[in-house]
User: Fold this.
Amino acid sequence: MIPGARLILLGRQGAGKGTQCVRLSRHFVVPHISTGDMLRAAVREGTELGVMAKRVMDAGSLVGDEIMVGLVRERLSQPDAVGRGYILDGFPRTVPQAMALDDITAQLPIDVVIDLDVPRELVLERLSSRRVCSDCGTNYVAVGVEKLPWICEVCGGDVIRRDDDTPEAIDHRLDLYEQQTEPLIEYYRRQRRLAVIDGVASPDEVFRRLTIAVDSAHRAS
Ligand code: AMP
Assistant:
């Protein structure tokens, strides 16, 4: 039986979290829980949460802690997450969210918190060429010679630039990451639950480093 896992992936926007989470989720057979994807789904569905979240997301700001904690609490109580675990991507993003998560996971604690480390200059470059399928979320890199409209190879959806991948919003999100999310790295380091992984390598190599970090956390527990 393939062991499950309870993981948090931290890292700047554009560090490759999305891509690696998909691979980790297949490898450990656990759901990939991305709070950004949950909010984008709410935007598509036009729910009350979606209307509010769209405004906040387009500005590159953060949705309130209380709403986010409620969403994650609900998701982590589902049978798949309770039974096998999960990979949390995009949550927690603030210290209050991390404290709430400690409470939510008191019975089944997180195995390891991974900081996927890629320098700001490099993610800026990556984000400005990032494109994404508006239906299934597959990531693409624009090199400037794509035929338009760009159709997703996986599901046939439209490949677009995310509304929050404008240069102003990217800058704002990276500033917010430094102010609000980097303190989390210290928070988890103090709890001795942090593994820092150098994310500047090929996707295969980064994946190899990540699975080694998770396996060694499993062996230590
Ligand atoms: P992401 O796809 O993780 O980059 O998230 C996209 C946007 O969703 C962020 O820029 C925030 O506006 C919002 N968001 C996602 N996760 C959170 C969170 N944990 N706390 C607050 N806002 C969030």
Observations:
- Strands lie at 5-10, 32-34, 85-89, 112-117, 130-133, 139-141, 159-160, 194-198.
